[in-house]
Amino acid sequence: MKIINTSLKDVLIIEPKIFEDARGHFFESFNNLTWHENELPVHFVQDNQSFSIKGVLRGLHFQKGQHAQGKLVRVIRGRVLDVAVDIRPESPTFGQYEFFDLDAETSKMVYIPEGFAHGFIALEDSIFSYKCTAGYHKASESGILWNDPTLQIQWPISAPIVSDKDKVLPTFEMLFSKQSV
């Protein structure tokens, strides 16, 4: 695996080595030893998977406090534009975001540590998978409005399909001018 730093402190792109032949291909999507050698979190406790039709936007989600989650995300089928937003007030990249184009063909992954809001938009019908460092905890869940005026995320689709729940998430300013995550 090739591990690449991004513009966001602690967010990493993981490029697996893909072995192909006439039968198809093979790659490691996770290797505990490789992660340990690179001093990355190796304790994943939950795997999640979702299916989204083209145009669905999910996010921006995170969990607070002791239930904060790090996530290793990838696309099993299709293509998504993934986004990570740094919500760590002490971080030099606080309030900044970065997009990651993830697809089933390259199998590129992104590790998003605790302290980030996360979301994606399906550019094709897609199956999205993520490993989490903490389990889901309803009382700790939170999020930021997908079209937040402070973050000004430049989503590539003007009228995405957004859940009712995600349409009423608080703004970045509402969350971070009054409290810390």
Give a summary of the structure in a few sentences.
With 181 residues, the protein is mainly beta. The chain has helices at residues 32-37, 164-167, 172-176; strands spanning 2-5, 12-15, 19-21, 24-26, 46-52, 56-63, 71-77, 79-86, 97-103, 109-112, 116-122, 126-132, 141-143, 161-162.
Q: Provide the domain count.
A: 1
State the name of the first-level CATH class.
Mainly Beta
| DSSP E strands, number | 14
Strand numbers in spatial order across the main sheet: 1-2-10-7-12-5
Strand content: 35-45%
Within CATH, the superfamily carries the name Jelly Rolls
Largest sheet: 6 strands, antiparallel
Note the topology.
Blueprint lengths: L1 E4 L6 E4 L3 E3 L2 E3 L5 H6 L8 E7 L3 E8 L7 E7 L1 E8 L10 E7 L5 E4 L3 E7 L3 E7 L8 E3 L17 E2 L1 H4 L4 H5 L5
Parallel strand pairs: 6-14
Antiparallel strand pairs: 1-2, 2-10, 3-4, 5-12, 6-11, 6-13, 7-10, 7-12, 8-9, 8-11
Could you list some keywords that capture this structure?
181 residues, mainly beta, six-stranded antiparallel sheet, six-stranded mixed sheet, 3 helices, 14 strands, 8% helix
Task: Give an overview in words.
The protein has helices at 32-37, 164-167, 172-176, and strands at 2-5, 12-15, 19-21, 24-26, 46-52, 56-63, 71-77, 79-86, 97-103, 109-112, 116-122, 126-132, 141-143, 161-162. With 181 residues, the chain is mainly β. The protein has a single domain (2-176), classed as Jelly Rolls (Sandwich). The strands form 3 sheets. It has a 6-stranded antiparallel sheet, with no helix packed on it. Strands 6, 8, 9, 11, 13 and 14 form a 6-stranded mixed sheet that branches. The protein has a two-stranded antiparallel ribbon with strand order 3-4. It is globular. The mean pLDDT is 93.
